[in-house]
Amino acid sequence: MSLQVLPISGIPEIKTGDVLSEIILKALEENNLSLQDEDILVLAQKIVSKAEGRFVNLTTVTPSAKAYEYAEITQKDPRFIELVLRESRSVLRCRLGTIIVEHRNGFVCANAGIDHSNVRGPWGNSEDWVLLLPEDADSSARVIRDQVFQKTQKRIGVMIIDSHGRAWRMGTVGVAIGLAGVPGLVDLRGKPDLYGYRLRITMIGAADELAAAASLVMGQADEGTPVVLVRGFPYPLRESSIQELIRPKELDLFR
């Protein structure tokens, strides 16, 4: 079966407290799509964060001395930097315009994934509102997956994705930050290649490959397609965690 990555149109503006599983199932019906076993729903991080109320207004943030120190280097708002520090385990790189951190969920990203675009809070100036990543994106994905199963009896996977840069290449790509029922890694060690050679080190970052494909369909600006349906994923679904994709520090050559 060929891989299909199908946009789901009609997802409304998400508000705090919205039940994403119900919204997605309604949109699927309106798109004349029905779930099948082994399908995967891929969600943009932003709608998950919005549903979980991860909004922060910068006027409510008091910067620490460390935040002021990094703000002077980066020339960013010290209140924004304070939120980055709160969401991070450690700061890895800091220079004009950039702060790279290890997020408290383990992955490395710029600004702790805190977003300012397409964010509108319930009060005050929209310029003062930012959106944090989900508290625990694996848990968020599991909740959505389980709710969909309760309503449809279909065994599916759910992924939450975000856009990350990379230390060794230009441009952002979609990557997985939360998984439920989707393998993070696919281990091909011991499998034969075309000529019978047994692979020794090949492990596929299958969730990130799928995240990149889904991100192309979603778009990165004002396309308004935060959910896609994936059918024909070439690997068996199984339980996993985003921790599968995080390289241990002792193997990370960029630290």
UniProtKB/TrEMBL annotation:
Q: What is this protein called?
A: F420-0:gamma-glutamyl ligase
Q: Which UniProt keywords apply?
A: GTP-binding, Ligase, Magnesium, Manganese, Metal-binding, Nucleotide-binding, Potassium
Name the source's superkingdom.
Bacteria
Question: Which Pfam families does this UniProt record tie to the protein?
Answer: F420_ligase
This protein's species is Anaerolinea thermophila (strain DSM 14523 / JCM 11388 / NBRC 100420 / UNI-1)
Q: What class of enzyme is it?
A: ligase
State its Enzyme Commission number(s). Answer: 6.3.2.-
Answer yes or no on keyword Translocase: no
Q: Does the record bear Manganese in its keywords?
A: yes
Matches recorded under SUPFAM superfamilies = CofE-like
InterPro entries attached to this UniProt entry = F420-0_g-glutamyl_ligase, F420-0_gamma-glut_ligase-dom
The protein's GO terms of the molecular function aspect are:
coenzyme F420-0:L-glutamate ligase activity; GTP binding; metal ion binding
Domain Coenzyme F420:L-glutamate ligase-like, by residue range, is: 11-232
